[in-house]
Design brief:
117 residues; mainly beta; 11 strands
């Protein structure tokens, strides 16, 4: 049972990346999935989330640039990141929380996104 985050890399400012959060051993559509990020030398922060019913939430800093989506057939949640800025540089983590839960049940290992200016 695990959550696997992938898709990070090095991109120039203004570019795009798509991160994936793939679940194995459990059905992701029964969980809310959240993306967090931790910039170098800073604390972890909320980026975006999608509930099992499809409702989405975004941090103000990424609204209009990032899109979270889920593909239940692939048991995967995606984070499409457009118009990337150097301040988006961070390790991105996904986490899954069961419906009605108060704590995250599973965490991905993190994937590094570096945006050069």
């Amino acid at each position: 049972v695990q959550l696997q985050a992938s898709g990070g890399g090095l991109v120039q400012a203004g570019g795009s990346l798509r991160l994936s959060c793939a679940a194995s051993g459990f059905t992701l559509d029964n969980y809310a999935v959240t993306w967090f990020r931790q910039p170098p030398g800073k604390e972890r922060e909320f980026v975006t989330a999608v509930k099992s019913g499809g409702s989405t939430y975004y941090a103000d800093s990424v609204k209009g640039r990032f899109t979270i989506s889920r593909d239940n057939a692939k048991n995967t949640v995606f984070l499409q990141m457009n118009s990337l800025k150097p301040e988006d540089t961070a390790v991105y983590y996904c986490a899954a929380k069961a419906i009605g839960g108060t704590a995250y049940d599973y965490w991905g290992q993190g994937t590094l996104v570096t945006v050069s200016s």
